[in-house]
Structure formats: structure tokens, C-alpha cells
Amino acid sequence: MVLRLDYVQGVSPAKWLRAWAERRRDQPIEARRVDEPAQLDALRAGEADVAFVRLPIDEAGLHRISLWEERAFAALPKEHPLADADELSLADLAGEPEAPVQDDPAMTMELVGAGTGWAILPQSLTRLHHRKDVVAIPLSDAPPTRIALVWLVERDDEDIQEFAGVVRGRTSRSSRGQDAPEPAPAKAKAKAKAGSAKAGSAKGGAKAKGGAKRKPTPRQGKSARRR
After folding, report:
1. Does the residue 214 lie in any domain?
2. pLDDT digit string, tens, across residues 119-132
3. Domain membership flag for residue 210
4. Which of 65, 54, 83 is nearest to 144 (CA)?
5. Range of the structural domain that residue 128 is part of
């Protein structure tokens, strides 16, 4: 059986593929890079087992493990008046013409290089599609994007759990529990509330049992001699 992996542009899965190959020689992985608008198509159609995607997405019916954030960059034509800036804000770009954003970021960068305007892209995509006629400048106040590992709830099995562990850096001796998918917001809130109540009860019991407060230990050293 082959484990099928899709990954969105800007993600380089090579290190995880190598780690998987060393651990699971019995099960190869077929990896395929996909465009962001189609990043979930094969997964939902049953043609991929797991995928690295760029959030936000429609998470209905999916398990998700959030991974890292990508800082937003402004791609500008090399001759743009702001092209020499070390950092920009969204206010700096207000009123400046924007390049038509394409499904393929390489085409977006091409249009920027042609002088049609600026575009906002994750740093990984400005690096992947670097052009000599385009400069990429970090944005100080644009929201970052996040990369996540996702798979179908109905497709959850030992192989996918093991791959998730590889991505999270879990060794073959580690517990699987640390790689559990993120709980839904409602469940996470209820769990946190229950934990807080339990901790409060334990703290109250310990205080009653302990009785009077302990006297502080006298200070030693230079600070004690000064007094």
C-alpha cells in the first residue's frame, strides 16, 4: 500500500519523506505538489491520504495539526519607489496599484515583475518564485498565514498517525498521545474549564490540610548581612 501525500506550494516535505523512508521501508509515499485553490480536492475525493495545506480552509470532516506560521511579504516591481525599503506597512501601500492575483503564485509574481502593481504573498512563495525584476519586502502589520497537516476523519488510521508523528518530530519510542489532532474549540474550552475547576479544588484541599502558613526562611548571604 502507498501513502499518498499532497503539499501546497511553499512547503518542502523532503526531510519528512526521508524520515518516513528510514522508518517505514515497507510503505512508500507518493508526494505531489498542488496549487493552493486545489489543495483539498484530492484529499476529499479520496485520491490523497494526507496533505500539507495553507490555512484558512473548510475544516469540516478533517483532522488538523497546525505547524508553522509564514510571514507576509509585499512583492514589488524592482523599479517601484518603495523597492528599497527594509520593511513596509499596509498603510505604505495604500493607494498603490495592485497586481491581479492569480491562482498560480508564479503568475502573480510575473505580473508584478511586468509592473502591474504589488501583491502580498507568504515569504515561502516569494522565495520559491523569485524573479530578478521583483523585490520582496516584509510587511510589519499584515496577518501571517499558517501551514497545517490535515487528513479526513474517516480516513484516520495507524499509518497516518505515524506520519503525523514524523512531522511533529516524534521518534519511534515516543508516545502517540502527543500527536493527537487539535480538539474542536468547544471541546477545548470545556476541557480547560474542567481542568481549572479540578486545580482549584486541589489547591483548596491542600490549604486546609496544611493549616497555618510556614514562616519564610531567613535570607542568607550579602543581602542578609546588610540588614
Report:
1. no
2. 999 999 999 999 99
3. no
4. 54
5. 72-138
